[in-house]
Write a structure and sequence with these properties.
By secondary structure, the protein is α/β, with parallel strands linked by helices. It has 16 helices and twelve strands. The chain has two domains: 294 residues, TIM Barrel; 74 residues, no CATH class. The chain is globular.
């Protein structure tokens, strides 16, 4: 593996370092999808403490989105109104495939984000969650030209996109839109060789096009923070003093051409742990990479639902089913046994619709970036838990 965060060209037999967009940004970023809740609302005081700990450590990149349930407003209160604008980078996204019925409404989403955050401009602005039929919505609404206009006006510093699709689809988008400056991809050691997610192949396509990468889901929605027992045993045997999270973050941070690695933190304790990992960072060595290979093999033998709890599916569900927590219940049963799965399912459906309330409309599957057969998985939940 090459030295981390470099783009290497061979010139006369010598390695020549080529600077890239975002190279100077600290390699741990704060993903704002899973902020702490109290009484069903984001706990702003808790978020402020998390932001303060993050900024005090010299870390500066924050990633939000309109679809992250109040996240843009929360970061205004916790960050924008409390720190000088030039002291951090703020990214947000436009998911016009979700909620916009025409180009005017799609473009208006930018102004809403600007107002909600109060940021004045965005350092990084992304077309959100490209892939499948969602990509054509950005084409139909002229969003590629729109984000370039925003950049020309100084309202956006850098433009790019996030996506969950195949390496072939990614290559097609980058061929069609070389003006995009970066790509945000789901990359972690569990999905590195996953035939559906194609983490490695997508990463290699982005780098082949000269695009730096922002990494999302480095701990796969929390799964790699508390992995199945066979994986935990492998990691602990190799280094009993290293947290499971540290293995996942170091794997992602060790890749070349990375702008930052987004960790979706929900507690101050998680921020503090991740800060320690980033401050003590060193790339995984060859011996540790062999440990990761063993962990990957062990994960490959465990049939888990590849849900990252992004909850896009739930925004589309006409029945109001808590799909993400039901997927978690299925995984917890696989990892920790029947009792744990049933208890989790009971908690997930307390006061909410059950899996048996699914009407099989499949709107959730159209929104799922992981391409999960959600309707079938809900049927499995009915069989196992009801």
């Amino acid at each position: 593996m090459l030295a981390r965060n470099t783009l290497i060209e061979i010139d006369g037999g010598k390695d020549t370092h080529m600077p890239y967009l975002g190279e100077e940004i600290p390699k741990l970023g704060f993903g704002l999808m899973r902020l702490p809740q109290e009484d069903g609302k984001i706990d702003i005081e808790h978020v402020k403490a998390m932001v303060d700990a993050f900024m005090d450590a010299g870390l500066t990149y924050f990633d939000t989105a309109r679809v992250y349930g109040g996240s843009e407003d929360a970061i205004r209160q916790a960050l924008v109104e409390r720190y000088p604008r030039g002291s951090y980078q703020l990214a947000t996204k436009n998911a016009c495939w979700l909620g916009a019925s025409n180009a005017e409404e799609a473009r208006a989403m930018f102004r809403t984000s600007l107002e909600k955050t109060g940021a004045g401009y965005f350092d990084f602005y992304l077309l959100h969650n490209l892939g499948d039929t969602r990509t054509t919505v950005f084409d139909d609404y002229g969003m590629w030209d729109f984000v370039q206009e925003l950049k020309e006006q100084g309202l956006v510093r850098h433009i790019g996109f996030s996506m969950h699709d195949t390496a072939e689809a990614l290559g097609g988008i980058l061929e069609a839109h070389p003006e995009m400056e970066f790509v945000q991809l789901q990359i972690n050691y569990a999905d590195w060789e996953n035939a559906s997610v194609q983490s490695r192949r997508c990463y290699e396509v982005a780098r082949a096009h000269g695009k730096p990468v922002i990494i999302m889901e480095p701990v796969r929605g929390g799964t790699l923070a508390n992995p199945p027992q066979p994986v935990a045993d492998i990691l602990s045997a190799a280094n009993p003093d290293a947290s499971h999270v540290s293995w996942a973050l170091r794997f992602a941070m060790g890749l070349e051409g990375v702008i930052t690695v987004l960790s979706g933190m929900s507690t101050l304790e998680q921020v503090q742990e991740n800060v320690r990992i980033s401050q003590d960072f060193r790339p995984l060595d060859d011996t540790e990479m062999k440990v990761i290979a063993q962990a990957q093999d062990a994960l490959g033998r465990i049939a888990l639902v590849p849900c990252t709890a992004c909850k896009y599916c739930m925004k589309e569900c006409p029945q109001g089913i808590d799909i993400a927590d039901i997927m978690q219940a299925l995984n917890r049963q696989t990892m920790y046994g029947d009792a744990d799965g049933k208890n989790w399912y009971g908690f997930a459906t307390r006061g909410h619709k059950k899996a048996s309330d699914c009407i099989a409309c499949a709107q959730c599957e159209m929104a799922c970036p992981q391409h999960i057969g959600i309707v079938d998985e809900l049927r499995h939940a009915v069989e196992r838990f009801e």
